[in-house]
Amino acid sequence: MYQLKQDKVVSHLNNRPRLAVTLGDPAGIGTEVVLKALADSDIYNDCDLTVVGNRSLLIKNYTYLQKNENIDFLDVSLDDNIKDKVTLGVESAASGAASFAFMEAAIAATLAGDFDGIVTGPIAKSAWKAAGHIYPGQTELLAEKAGVEKFGMLFVARSPHTNWTLRTLLATTHIPLCQVSEALTPELMSRKLDLLVECLEKDFGIKNGKIVIAGLNPHSGERGQLGTEEADWLFDWLEGEQKKRPNLTLSGLIPPDTMWVQPGQAWYGNSNIKSQIQAADGYLALYHDQGLIPVKLMAFDRAVNTTIGLPFIRTSPDHGTAFDIAGKGIADPTSMKAAIELASELVSVRISDR
Ligand SMILES: NC(=O)C1=CN([C@@H]2O[C@H](COP(=O)(O)OP(=O)(O)OC[C@H]3O[C@@H](n4cnc5c(N)ncnc54)[C@H](O)[C@@H]3O)[C@@H](O)[C@H]2O)C=CC1
Ligand SMILES: NCC(=O)COP(=O)(O)O
């Protein structure tokens, strides 16, 4: 059983963010990017970090990366038959059972008050399924355990070229493309917009911001010729929302291809300064790849996936388990570092608001 250490109590009283960092799927690159991130002493400047995983698995697979012996560790016990079956680069029921156990431990400790937030290493949803845990992803497990029904998947990335911040919320997430149209409803869209508005205000200090909303079909339907969802209800929904929220600037339904031109210019700074001024504070994409292709094109090395609507902070790197390079020592930890830094910033904002 995990015991709250005395130094955690002290850091809580000092208002330093206390973050749990899960190792993700032990057959993927999660452990590598966490250990590389923690090898940079600057990462501890503003927060206290506790790794959540299985120590003996870590030692078995990542001996060459163990430069830092002093990391705080929440050692999650695993049966030997799970540990013996975990093989670097090979997704399996065992690796899924392990990453699920790490998440459960981190969530339980956070809900018990030991941490202010969780930074999660990447997991494979298919490995969770093979282990008998049927969730679309970590997001839904977090929401279920925290008992919230209103939550969202927001990607945040700060441009290294201009310092401009891209924030993209997905209206729908891990569902087949053929189910997107049916899943999108005025109620769902309003729920996601509420979450984005609240998060901009509470977490990023942006009141009365500008939010851009994507259309669904090519050219936002071209007056019904290329798809009818926009004409049937999406334009009316948006008009209703703008009336309800006169202080916000809601812009849409922007044709999904051209929607990303302005953020791209603001990100790279290769246009005039106007693009950064005109770019929005938040973008609402209607489905997974509509939002994530541009995020990953601009910022695959540094974007952060954050779950909004939870009673605690959760962030994660934007990349996955990368089984193809696991154990090779070439995984880039930049996105993991950004996830830790963002979690620390967001917790600090909440602590200062208390
Ligand atoms: N936050 C999470 O838990 C996420 C989990 N996934 C899961 O990951 C698994 C694999 O998904 P893929 O689509 O292949 O995406 P992926 O991000 O794991 O890999 C895509 C490509 O990028 C490379 N790559 C990824 N991260 C890298 C890093 N830090 N440094 C250097 N190269 C890196 C990989 O080697 C691969 O060539 C799936 O099971 C998916 O569900 C995917 C995205 C996020
Ligand atoms: N594409 C984002 C992703 O797969 C992250 O999912 P989750 O595990 O954070 O729910």
Automatic annotation (TrEMBL):
Cofactor(s) needed by this chain: a divalent metal cation
Alphabetical keyword list: Cytoplasm, Metal-binding, NAD, NADP, Oxidoreductase, Pyridoxine biosynthesis
InterPro entries: PdxA, PdxA_fam
Chain positions recorded as substrate binding sites: T139, K296, N305, R314
The protein's Enzyme Commission number: 1.1.1.262
Example GO biological process: pyridoxal phosphate biosynthetic process
Pfam families registered for this protein in UniProt: PdxA (PF04166)
GO molecular function: 4-hydroxythreonine-4-phosphate dehydrogenase activity; metal ion binding; NAD binding
Residues holding a divalent metal cation: H174, H219, H288
Locations listed in the record: Cytoplasm
Cofactor binding comment, as recorded: Binds 1 divalent metal cation per subunit.
Recorded catalytic activity of this chain's protein: 4-(phosphooxy)-L-threonine + NAD(+) = 3-amino-2-oxopropyl phosphate + CO2 + NADH
Top EC class, one word: oxidoreductase
A single cellular component GO annotation: cytoplasm
Pathway(s): Cofactor biosynthesis; pyridoxine 5'-phosphate biosynthesis; pyridoxine 5'-phosphate from D-erythrose 4-phosphate: step 4/5
Coarse class of the protein's main subcellular location: cytoplasm
Family of the protein in this entry: Belongs to the PdxA family. PdxA2 subfamily.
Protein role: Catalyzes the NAD(P)-dependent oxidation of 4-(phosphooxy)-L-threonine (HTP) into 2-amino-3-oxo-4-(phosphooxy)butyric acid which spontaneously decarboxylates to form 3-amino-2-oxopropyl phosphate (AHAP).
Miscellaneous information on this protein: The active site is located at the dimer interface.
Assembly and interaction partners: Homodimer.
Name assigned to this protein: 4-hydroxythreonine-4-phosphate dehydrogenase
Organism: Calothrix parasitica NIES-267
